[in-house]
Structures are given as structure tokens and as C-alpha cells.
Amino acid sequence: MPSDEPFDVSRRSLFGGALATAALVASEASAQRHDAKASLAETPQVATPIDATVETQSGRVRGFTRGGTYIFRGIPYGGKVSGDRRFLPATSPEPWTGVRSTLSLGPTCPQPARDWSNDEMAFIADWNDGHPGEDCLTLNIWTLSPRHSPALPVMVWLHGGGYVTGSAHEQPAYEGARLAAHGAVVVTVNHRLGALGFMDLSEVAGASYAGSGNAGITDLVLALQWVRANIAQFGGDPSRVTIFGQSGGGGKVSTLMAMPHAKGLFHRAIVMSGSFPPTQPQATARETTRAVMQRLGVNDLAGLQAVSADALIAAGQAEFASRSTGPSIPGLTAGPIRLPRTWAPVVDGNIIPEAPWERSAPAVSRDVPLIVGSVRDEFRLSTMVVDEAGLRKRLQGIYGPEKAPLMLAALRKDFPKLSMNDLGGVVSGIAWRVAALRQLDLKKAQGGAPAYGYWFTYAPDLLDGRVGVPHCADIAYAFDNCERTDQLTGNTMTANKIADVMAAAFVRFAADGNPAGTDLAWPRHGEAVETMIFDRSSGAKNKPAPNIYATHLNEV
Length: 556
What we know:
By secondary structure, the chain is an alpha/beta fold.
């Protein structure tokens, strides 16, 4: 408290006091370090015990343990896909003799360099771009025990980044140990991306390359076949496999749900912020292939297999940039989400018979229970600062001058405590939540396995509150990884509580197709449109933020 007495301290006493304070702080810090060291057990926290050796169909692999969890990194599930195997369907890896070390992460598919010019976004994401290599068909496993009994449900994570970027370890949130501790075997997968995974050569390279436009997604089918054949050796139950993914990973989940070749390889599915059209017409894919070949100055398969991966990627980027139209941030429109034109799986009438999720849920996955969710702000950037005038202008650009005031009133009514800047963040997530609700409606209308919806709305207090609830925010909580992602979550008690609830619900869903538990009522998506809200107080709510969505959908 302020004092009315004069403040008169000599430099000597001030300096002496500072030295004494510094000495005390140093002494306390030393004591804390000593206590921390004294608390360490003699048993190593990281070890490579002999029982971390597992027999797979291709040969034995040896991983390591950390804190009691068994971890296997970079296990090959597919063979060579470089050189003369580029663009061809992947095959099983060549068997090996002896014991293969699986201690380090495998290569990531070559891809465009990430833009790290935004320091705050780089801080929040804390991504690991890894090392590139075309022969990238590897997966990573976390398990409580290779011989766990009874066998545990399996959760196979499909990374985001659209169909062009990303990897199985790009975010610290993907670390699977904490999720495995909830009672699951966790698998993360690398596969072919961009032109290497989705360049349709069916018109120019013959029947052997008829599936080239879907090589990246059939890689995932091969990975799931590997899981079915081998996961029991890691303590997993091959009859209870869940595929889950966020953004582009959610698109991959949606695509696999429409593929006859993937039927029976998974039994539950989770789409996180990925409810957008996941495929492209074959005519479009073939046109893109011709244009990219022209840019490269090649006219046959041999030429395409001879160019470097970097040159192939650059040609694709240049071609899509030349055709770019529409908003740079997906979802900032009043209509359905339309992603920028880029590489994507191809509706070829065979591997993908028809465009999935356009008018109905895919019949081939009718019996697969589904969770679909999104986050509150989606494509909000931490550097975005919007005042009332800026928000009005943004709303007018999206909804037009007549509807914009109605949307502003709806935002204020549904979120009376949020600042104008936070309301601007909410706007960037509206179309994504509408898309998630539509996917849930299509699944419900199918009359098969149930669907469950969630909306993640927790905003930690980071960067002066400007982080909000951006795209990818829910991944750390689904994996129960708040500590590893403290630059995004803050690693607070509240954040960890939400993570524990969300991860446990996802594992229950993986176990029996129902995320509800004794401490969490999660009704299925139905006429009441019950939605699980993950926030400081998590629970189901019927039509949260109703005014925003009614106005967005012209229901007022």
C-alpha cells in the first residue's frame, strides 16, 4: 500500500538488501534443485528394456520406455515410394532380419516450407517440421504394455495440414503417452502428400497408375491394414480401431469413411474441425496434372519420376497460386466452406466411388459411430485486433450491409461478456461449426450408428488474451497434453481438467462407441441438437449460441 512516510533509503542499504535478497533466492533455488534431484528414483525414466521388443509381420522392432509407457517410432508400414516407385500404390515393407531399432521419428513427406515469419504464431504452434524424405511410410506407437491384457482400444491419429503439409509429429500435442495412459494404444501415421500423393496420372501413365490420384489416402488404408495385422502384438485390439484427425486429418477421416477398400479396418471415427468437402473431381485432377507437367517441361512418366521432389512441389504451388480466388482464410464467407484449390483425393469411381458427404453420409460406413466437432474461433490469428468499427466492416464483407447489424446483435446476445476482438474471433469459426452440424445431420439422417457433436470454447489467458480458441486448439486437450503444449494452453489447472475430461471421453468412445461416462452425460446428436461444450465448465447443451447460427442460416 502507498505510505505517507518519506521514502529515504541509502544506496548502500538498498544494494545490501538486494544482495541479501539475491542470495536468499539463489539459496531457495538451489534447495529446490536439490529436492528435485533427491526425488528422482534410481530407475531410469527413459530406458530401452529387452521387453520393448515386439514381433511384427515384417520383423522384430525395439523401442523404448518413458515414464512407464512403451514407445516405438518410425516403424515402416509400407515400402519404397521413391524413384521408379513414385506415384505407384504402396506395398508392404521388405522383411528384415534381426531387431530393427525404432527409437527415432521417420522422415516427413517432402512439402512446401512453412512460413515462420509470424513470431507469435510460431510461439503458439511450436511445431517440429522434421526431416524430409520420399520414403516416409512410417508410424509411431504408444502403449501401456506390448502384452497388455485385456487388449486396449486403438486410436489412429491422422495429421492435419490439408493434403499438402504436416506430419505425424509436427505438433507437440501429437505425443501419445498421456492419451495412452487413459487406456488406449495410440498410433500416428506419416503418408504421401501433395503431388507425391495426389497427382492423377491415370490419363498419361497407364493402368498401373490409375490410383495415383489417391496414393496418399491409400497409404492410410495400408497403414490401417498394418494395424489390423500387428497391433495385437502391442497390446491393442484390432476389432476396436478408431480413426481421428483434425483439419486436413478430419478430411482424411471423412474420406476413409467413404472408401470401400477401408471398410472394416476401423470401427469408430472422430472429425475435428475437418467438415469440408474432402475430395475433387477427376476431371479437375487430370487438368491440374497436365498444367503441372507443362510447368515442369516434361511430357511423360519418366520425366515426372526424374524431377526432384522440390521441383515437383514448386510447380504445384505455382499452378495453384495462379488459380487462387476467394478469401485467404477459409470459412470467412456466409456460405459453405470452400478451401483454396489444391491437391486432394480424387473421385475416380473406384477407390472413391462418389463425392462423400455432399448429399448424404457414406453408406459404406453406416455402422461406424462418429464424433464431429469444431473450435470457437477457428481461423482467428493472435495478431488480429478488431475494434467495433473493424468488426462491423468484417461482418458487412461477409453478410452484406443488411444482415451485418443482425449478426452483430446476435453475437452480443450469445456472448455478452466477450470483447469486440473476441467476437471477431467467433466470426471466423461460424462457418466451421455450421459445417460440423451439417455433417452430424447427414450422419443422423442415415439412421445407422450414432453421431455425437462437440464445440470447444475454452480460451486460455495468453498473449494478453489474444490467443482465443484458434484452429488446432482442441488437439492438445484431446491428447491430454497441456504440459507439452503450455505455449498454447498455459498448462493451468483448468486446462488440465478439461483435457482429462476430453481425453477420457475420446477413449471411452474408442472402447465402445459411446463417449458418455458416469461423470459426463454426452447425448447423441438428434432432434434436440445436443452439443458437448468443452470449457471451464464442460457439459452438454442444446443449441449453444442459438442466435448466431439462426442468423447465419437466415432463420430470423
